[in-house]
## 1
Amino acid sequence: MEPFKLIHPNDQHAAIASSGAANVKFIAGGTNLIDLMKLDIEKPAQLVDINSLKLQTIEALPNGSVRIGALVKNSDLAYHPVIVKNYPVLSEALLSGASPQLRNMATVGGNLLQRTRCPYFYDTSFPCNKRVPGSGCSAINGYNRNNAVLGTSTQCIATHPSDMCVAMAALGAIVHVEGLTGKRQIPFHEFHLLPEQTPQYETTLKHGELITAVELPPIRYSAKSHYLKVRDRHSYEFALASAAVALNVSNGRIEAARVALGGVGTKPWRSVEAEKALVGAAADEQSYRNAAEAALNGAKPFKDNAFKIELAKRTLVRALKTVGGMS
Ligand SMILES: Cc1cc2nc3c(=O)[nH]c(=O)nc-3n(C[C@H](O)[C@H](O)[C@H](O)COP(=O)(O)OP(=O)(O)OC[C@H]3O[C@@H](n4cnc5c(N)ncnc54)[C@H](O)[C@@H]3O)c2cc1C
Ligand code: SF4
């Protein structure tokens, strides 16, 4: 690990003011950043510890939204009564991630920015375009069982590893950020980037911008939602495939739907195609299967991960059955 300076500002403006230089980074729970620093993948000259900032609250707003501070711990969010009751998909996604100890440290802001678990990204003896732009992608012709089948490019096929983000994608969350030039709000589907030709750029957050909160807009039927994660072992493991779904079913017909997939996409993968296939259809197995076909239409398998396409379809069908039942 390279030597670095650590500062502890206790107000938001001071934190933002000290983060402008190129090799300065914020640190929250440190559960991803410190690992990357130990491996010399991240080498900040200065860390800005943001843990004293007042970004730890979860508030129900008068317009029906819920505003979650960026420093809310993953476990506190998962067990918050409003989230458990109105957004079970988010609570379940959080509780499926990492381990209790990690969830007690990990924050909402840090979870949004966690980096891929592609093994070649972590092993600095291999070429990796995300770590060293232009060096090549070791996964495309290498061992790629855990890599993505949706949103890949010729430069990178790494999955986005977050569970929380899949639920937030389905819920159409809004990311609130503040930088030296002011505040802005980023719709969730615009926050994470596809790898395309520049996999080193992963989000639309500008350098020095602080994530201050995530807002969950009111969705009438979000209480009828579910997160299903399929993985090699039942705990402490990233998804091979996962599905976040919310459904509004009336008299056996689907009136509204939200669908997002994890473990298979290069970003948290909201599927408007699956949502379109569901709305107006009967709440039955055939409709769920049609939605799964639509969601994975265009998926591109690699040498070791073709199984993920059928796995993701079955994961989505099972999640939809759990929420929508079968008419
Ligand atoms: C062994 C292990 C298993 C795991 N398993 C899972 C899993 O199954 N599912 C899953 O979803 N996750 C999993 N994780 C990842 C874990 O969820 C993330 O490490 C965690 O959410 C990161 O949050 P943090 O607060 O610790 O971030 P940090 O490590 O502090 O920061 C991560 C990044 O975010 C930036 N940052 C943090 N907060 C802000 C902010 N407010 N504004 C701007 N930038 C910010 C930092 O500069 C850094 O670049 C696992 C991690 C480990 C180590
Ligand atoms: S898939 Fe992406 S992260 Fe993995 S080796 Fe290729 S460029 Fe690096």
## 2
Amino acid sequence: MTGIELALAGLRQRPTAPIALKQPLEVDQLPTPALVLDLPTLDRNIAKMSGHLQRHGKAIRPHSKTHKCPLIAQRQLAAGALGICAAKPSEAAAMIHGGIKQILLTSPVVTESKAQLIASLLAPEVDLMMVVDSMPGLDILARHLSPEHRIGLLVDVDLSMGRTGVRELDDILGLVEQISADPRFRFAGIQHYAGHLMHLSDYDKRREKSLTAWERLDDIFRALDERGFVPAIVTGGGTGTFDIDIDVGRLTELQVGSYVFMDEEYRALGSARGERFVDFDVSLTVACSTISRPQQPTITVDGGYKAFASDSVAPICVQMPDLRYHFAGDEHGVLVLGDGERAVDLGQVIEFITPHCDPTVNLHELYWVREADGMVHSCWPITARGCSW
Ligand SMILES: Cc1ncc(COP(=O)(O)O)c(C=O)c1O
């Protein structure tokens, strides 16, 4: 077996369907730390984003890097998404394994092993598109893919983020020309994702910077038009610009991800509605138990770096938003109890809003799915957990 075959074989054994519980559970009966997904809120967020984009004439291709769960992708498709995005080839493989067939891979592939992986995913029923941002990347795909699939390629354009993408007009045109001249490929469009703008806290600044960035792409579109290259898909945008990028005429679709769950990083931003970003509700929490009280004003919970992403703000307690949480190592967090919170006792289960939802999800194996009756009836597998290869 090659390394890729071995890794894929493991992936294809992962569960994708809901796992029903023998008996419904209250959140405080879960084995903590537990990732809790509130289904009615999830569905409301999905419906709200789809309705918003449809009303503004934009398509939605949600990013599965946020949830890594084919069951959630299916709900997004049912609400009108024309496909989903995947960040890495393995994430695409996990989605295909879970029955999702329309996928845009949003990171470039430039190595033999990944090109082989892509080739192994192609099948008549799979509509896989991907981005390229370099000639070496295009060459490696050309070596591994055959004309029978005629895979759709989008050129990833970077303006100022400096993460992925090609910046110079000549390089962009060179890639489009090469793609169009090769029977293995089809020029499908342009991707531009300005991730560094998504979390600008001032809404007006976020709006101004995002629209200005898209305006700077006009020269590229003009040059493509003049040469007869039609970018049928122009994709980008995220939750932070969901109500901004709808004003970009050339944009055909948004790649929104975090809106399904919302996290504290997003909620702390300004929005068109005021000082907080409350257009979507929090559907994702981590339930932790209080397990120790070595000193009076604090109490220790069983969730630390292995339960919450720690790259941004601190987790926020749902029931007591003023309660301060400190990371206290891999397995623990410490809560500082103010006067009003002294009643918190040992053995209590407390829910926290995630600091940053995507990397938090990646730490867990299952969503514990809470339904409209407030009870957890099933678990949904996070099939693409760890799929960053
Ligand atoms: C390429 C790309 N598109 C879309 C998204 C989704 O962004 P958000 O979660 O802010 O909606 C991300 C998130 O990191 C991304 O990297």
